[in-house]
Fold:
Amino acid sequence: MDLLNIYSKDFPIFIEELINTSEFKRLSNIGMNCGCEYTSFPIFSKGKNYTRYTHSIGVALIVWHFTKDIKQSIAGLLHDISSPVFAHVIDFLNGDHENQESTEERTEYIIENSKEIQSILKKYNLTTKDVCDYHMYPIADNNSPLLSADRLEYTLGNAFYYGFKTINEIKNMYEDLTICKNEFEEDEISFTTLDKALEFTSVSMLNSKVYSSNEDRFSMQYLADLLKLAIDKSIISIDDLYTTEDEVITKLEGYKESKSMLDSFRCFSQVLTSKTKPDDGYWVNIPAKRRYINPQVVSMGRVSSLSKELSKDIDDFLKVDFNIWLSGK
Structure:
């Protein structure tokens, strides 16, 4: 059993058709852990098995499971179609590391200009506008910290790949979910029982601490600086960022300066910290996007109002001081 089998009992033909387009297949070489999986930090050791390809299919299957709506499911499937190599590292490159939204800019363009995708959409009487913005559909995506298919999938996916949860534990949490109206009168993926909501929120907080960890922030900034150097020296182009990670890595390996930085990146296994910037070496001071989820339980409210322990955990997470200098070893 794998995660995709948990998300939906059936695998619709329109998903099968779209995942075989060249634009979508590219995502099989774009990781979910934003390049951190190429380092030697232990927490990311299994990350190479988790890609934007798998995540996007998972989001589509979750949306399909709960809505049986083809338009919403395709929007979920294609939401990462424009993800560049190393994904949100490019947000760091663009100076958007706290919002991490700049990587979505090409989504509509790619869908509109793909003959393969357009042919499939036409078959189902759909347009680019129907599927190019999954934010239109609250089951697919909604405002943080609410629970959506996107947040649900990457939480469960990373919980598995980080070793926080087993497949059976994930299955039991997923089977507790249903759809109900939230306080904003929108449909939201919600838990039926409090114990499963608490279990999910606890593991989502473990994930959140990884996403904003010193290891994660340092790795993403270092890789962004490596890519900036490579672009400035014409080792790679901006368009190369929209190919695959293997292709970009091959180009980085072809030049002495970028290869040296890449070799160091691959060897990083420990983060050094300092309250003040040391005079020597590569040091960065970088904030973090604070991703967290506060799901609702049917007829009971949100977890933060139902568990003092988790409410404190969320508050403490939101207060973490990231104003320190980081280096790698």
In short: The domain at 3-213+290-318 is CATH 1.10.3210.10 (Hypothetical protein af1432). The longest helix spans residues 214-232. The mean pLDDT is 94.
